[in-house]
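Researcher: Before we compare anything, I want clean individual predictions. No alignment, no superposition, just each chain on its own. First chain goes here; please echo the sequence and then give the structure tokens.
Model: Echoing the first chain and its structure:
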Amino acid sequence: LAGKRNLVIYFYPKDDTPGCTMEALEFTDLQVEFDAARPDVFGISRDTCTSHGAFRDKYGLTVQLLADPDGEACEAYGVWQEKEAHGEKRMGIVRSTFIVDTQGLIRHVLWDVKPKGHAAAVLELVQELKIYQAELEIQNQELQQAQQELSALHREYVDLYDFAPCGYATLNPKGGVTRINRTGANILGAE
């Protein structure tokens, strides 16, 4: 799952049912905001591609729908579970959403969600993840810069050591260089 963009993978029970339609329409309505936050959004059910196409066309959905007729993805994500409705137990998809980062790590899991307002809640989490990733990128850049500066100081230290074979050089607390001979006497720039 690792890639260039974060992923939103939402599992829903069935095409063209009231709750699933509401959820898909809300993701579609927020498509511009999701595009700005840059995740790829996928809805998955055990319906066929033909069913998905009819569902998409009937409601003008822009969310990408993936077919999982054999239930492999549903099983892998643990959303195919026993459910009870109207006193009857049966297996079905528990409406759930997974937010996966660019490294392939699942950052958020939302189990047994209600369709109304769900897309907006997911959008908020994705936006927070994007901010976190931007801050992490800045920290990584600062760390790389510090490592480069440390490497440059190390090279300077090595050059000074090579320059004074009769002794050694150390960096003093003020950021300057103290050169010391073998007896420990300060030979340059006494402090």
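Researcher: Okay. Second chain, same rules.
Model: Second chain and its structure:
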Amino acid sequence: RELLAVADLVSFSRTAVRTTHPAATRGGVSQYSRQNDTRVSASAMSARSGEASQILVLRAIGLGDFLTGVPAYRGLRNAFPDATITLAAPAVLEPLALLTGAIDRVLPVTGLGELPPLPAPPDLAVNLHGAGPQSIADLLATRPRRLISHRHPQYLQISGPEWCEEMHEVERWTSLLGAAGIPADPGELHL
């Protein structure tokens, strides 16, 4: 299944230029913001780098799914070049996550419901796991100042885009960020 997902990803890929962000090799993690507002308007989310210093991205699934998120990770890095971006994902993906040049650290999780308590709420939480209520609940439990996610009927305070089942995963995640005012190029798939 993973090989099929990678093959699908490669067939979707466009011409890519190798980039590396200096923040990918930065050590340490700064303190999280203490703000507690989780009501989010995706269209009101701005991509100015000063708005988020701590970003938590949830993508707690396997290799193929991780790879489809690479353009979104890079979109976040480009929008927030000075932020510390933490990816909640299986620990085995850490070497690949660091190779993207967009992720500073991996918070090891093997599925939903496994986010450990954070020292403080993130400035921004991004749901690249799915549109179900469990992934949204996991991120809301971290008390982020802002949340980017697809909308779900159980969470009316989240005004993100509707989930489109027919959309390719790469396009789904870059479109989610685009709806929040964060450009992400679906062709940025290289490691």
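Researcher: What stands out in the second chain?
Model: Helices lie at 2-12, 63-68, 70-79, 94-99, 133-140, 169-179. Additionally, Residues 2-12 form the longest helix (11 residues).
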